[in-house]
């Protein structure tokens, strides 16, 4: 029996199903979580299905979370999607269910759950949810509603199909989702839109970014700067790709100061593997897209030096042929 068949068997076994995703969700977290929830609701109308987590400002157009009473977990199947490790799971009640399934596309450094399906080569967890439907032999059904959510997740996690994890299979899956008839162009526009405050912050990033000797780039966003633009940590997601648009930049990091003075690090790369560096700073993620944390700005120079060393090992796209 395949892992997909085992997952569907568990879905059919439980009357109550509660789906979790990671903290500070992105489109793939919301898309895979709510897309799967919608698929289960529409395939098994008699079941009670919840999608839980804090309200995600800016992503409510994909779907919104729901309140769940503690007692609902007691006999429930819990599914955690798009979450690499247990500290990042949104709503720590996920451990109180009857049975737990993990579905993810991050490196499986934290192998939690009673049943685990992790494919790091997949573009997104949303892509895996479509694969689950296709492997269910008709037991799970896809609709325009769920397809729209999953498409948003795929587009978000592939950077509009620009990242290396985009494969021919990814594009076939996206095409199949579009074929259900939702307005894909509207989803694309929504994902590409930015708020006026983010537009102003983008100009600040271009003006103040720093380049190292070997073309690593970084920007430090202090609380003072964020307050000036009337943005919190969540509002900085839209500027993460900006430094990578510079043709000479090989890898980059956005340092975002938190309310307690610590920093959240958003680390990205075009080729050099950066997730091992992220692990040195209590983080992790994909080889080319990771996150980490730093207790204060005193650690920034040492981190930037390591980032520069990684850039030095990358021959760069201009010399790759």
How would you describe what is shown here?
By secondary structure, this protein is α/β, with parallel strands linked by helices. The chain has two domains: 3-192, inorganic pyrophosphatase (n-terminal core) (Alpha-Beta Complex), CATH 3.90.1640; 196-319, Diaminopimelate Epimerase, Chain A, domain 1, CATH 3.10.310. The protein contains ten helices and eleven strands. The protein has helices at 3-13, 27-43, 125-134, 144-157, 168-178, 184-192, 196-208, 223-228, 275-280, 300-313; strands at residues 16-20, 48-51, 77-81, 99-104, 115-118, 210-211, 216-221, 251-257, 263-269, 284-285, 289-294. The strands form two sheets. The chain has a six-stranded mixed β-sheet with strand order 6-7-8-9-11-10. Helix 4 runs parallel beside helix 6.
What is this entry, summarized?
With 321 residues, the protein is an alpha/beta fold. It folds into two domains: 3-192, inorganic pyrophosphatase (n-terminal core) (Alpha-Beta Complex); 196-319, Diaminopimelate Epimerase, Chain A, domain 1 (Roll), CATH 3.10.310. It has helices spanning 3-13, 27-43, 125-134, 144-157, 168-178, 184-192, 196-208, 223-228, 275-280, 300-313; strands at residues 16-20, 48-51, 77-81, 99-104, 115-118, 210-211, 216-221, 251-257, 263-269, 284-285, 289-294.
